[in-house]
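Final report, closing paragraph on structural work. Over the funding period we assembled a curated collection of sequence-structure pairs, and we close with a single example.
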Amino acid sequence: MRDSRAPAGLPFMKMHGAGNDFVVIDARRTAQPVTAALACALADRNRGVGFDQLAVIHPAEDADFRLQFLNSDGSEAGACGNATRCVSDYMMRESGADSTSLRTSRGILHALRRPDGLVSVNMGPPMLEPAQIPLVPVNDVLHLPIDGDPVAVGMGNPHCIFFVADAGAVDVAGWGASIEHHALFPEATNVEFASLVGPDRLRMRVWERGAGITLACGSGTCATAVAAHLRGLTGRRVEVEVDGGLLEIDWREDGVWMTGPTAHVFDGVLSPAFLASVDA
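Its predicted structure, as stored:
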């Protein structure tokens, strides 16, 4: 029989958006600190739970909630679009509303559930000035002085987008890792590889800073759509095929809206023994 006086552990949720997977911890309901060490231990797909990013829900005074993101290496991420959509879906179900507001390091974002059940989030306007991305000063963010002629776009995270003939044939691990810490990006960068596969339709694969190859990247999908439009390849509304599914991007006057599926896979509780091993 379980001792009712024993520590209860730490509840969490496992979610994904188009295969981009997350562990979500609701810090409104626990006093357990969420540290970089805990993120690294949780991210281990053999000894922990496994995720691309850890999303932590906090209370907020000026929005319905605040989100903090940590990568699988324990570093902080400024934005995570698919996690934002997944957690927004959870929060809307909790409140019974079809819209919600949240604070991230980018400011206050807004999300809603469409009549078809898909969840949309306004990721805010793209950042195209080098200091905002951030990027070492260059003459043209649409044509960086890097082999492959990539584009730089900020969407809360820095992104370096390469347009290639066939995104499916790219060595994402090799090329992505070589660019992640390029000298032009003082805070490192996500790296996207995209090809035009139809009118206003892109195929994209991604190497995320602090996480490596993921099946999808929300902010990266937004950045790629912005770059494609600015390069004259597409309109402002595009469909993007990622390894984990399909995302819709609509660059409107009020920001870049991203829409796609969400999945709440399971709930779990981290054991007191696991938490103690992290603190040891």
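The chain has two domains: 10-119+262-279, 151-253. The domain at 151-253 is CATH 3.10.310.10 (Diaminopimelate Epimerase; Chain A, domain 1). We thank the funder for supporting this effort.
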